[in-house]
Amino acid sequence: MKKVDLLPFQDYDHIIISESGGKDSMACLFYLLDLGIEPQKIEMWHQSVDGGHDDLIEFMDWPVTESYIEAVGQHFGINTSFQWREGGIYNELMRKDSLTGDVYYCDNGKLVKLPTRNGKRSTRHKWPAMSPDLRVRWCSPYVKIDVFRRVLNNHPRFKDKKVLVVTGERREESPNRAKYFETEIHACNSKKRLVHAWRPVIDWSEQRIWDEYEKRRFLPHPAYLLGWNRTSCFGCIFSTADLWAMMREIAPERFNKLVEKEKELNHTIDTNRLTLEQKANLGAIERLPKDRRLSKWVKLALSRNFRKDDLIMENWELPAGALLGANGGPV
Ligand code: SF4
């Protein structure tokens, strides 16, 4: 993609933050508001990796994520919008002699379907590879990147508009991300709409991100409170042995779902062919809080009903997952 000079913010019709609920995209939101951009101009888009509405299949994601993002939106008076591929990662993993799932989004409470018409019928039955190469690490494009682009390209609200897409990658996270531009022409830019991409926290340190939370006494996604250093999928393919052990400890049923799927497919998530059980056996659960905060944060992380009143903490504390580096997440 080509580097670009951004327009003055007031010249964009829409500013979309691609919001995972994790610390880096949250820092983008804090920063945009600090710059004085009106909340009405900002919207947060989240791609639900387990599908949504009638086709939600609890498989890979933290149950709390969507309601946490919704609560953040309500707190700041910012619109939130969810998009997904039918049946999410589960359906794509189990796809047999068929096309990939349709894409859905909600518009003013109305569900809109973007049917899959192109592509080849094929069978997946293999986990995404633990690789930076998105041709084999299929989860990121199939349930996130392509879903976002299809909705932006097809949503009538963005036709002939100027759009700024904000994402939270940081150079500190990986050698791959260190090479990213701060601003560029977005892949959705076309004759029908101008779309720029901006990574406002690209050179921020992790400490600076947590300082922004502390300043607001803002409760981070419960995953961090439990000791996860990233908020990505709960069962992210890049999870370290410690994270698998921690998942098994706090959500054995969810962990076992993935274990059973590995057995059924006769294919391990781990590229070195360790089963999830073998990998979890190599990990430690030391990072999980040891006092009564554990059951409180587990309950919150596994619920689908996060309330906006819980966003501001009385006594803010650095979460157990802070400042541990970027291990265990996409590269
Ligand atoms: S968070 Fe992990 S499992 Fe989820 S889409 Fe990204 S790389 Fe795949």
UniProtKB/TrEMBL annotation:
Pfam families per the UniProt record, alphabetical: PAPS_reduct (PF01507)
Question: Mind telling me which Gene3D superfamilies this protein's record contains?
Answer: HUPs
What is the name attached to this protein's record?
Answer: Phosphoadenosine phosphosulphate reductase domain-containing protein
Phosphoadenosine phosphosulphate reductase domain residues are 125-236
Query: Which InterPro entries does this entry report, sorted A to Z?
Result: PAPS_reduct_dom, Rossmann-like_a/b/a_fold
Q: What GO molecular function annotation could you give as one example from this UniProt entry?
A: catalytic activity
Q: Which organism is it from?
A: Anaerobacillus alkalidiazotrophicus
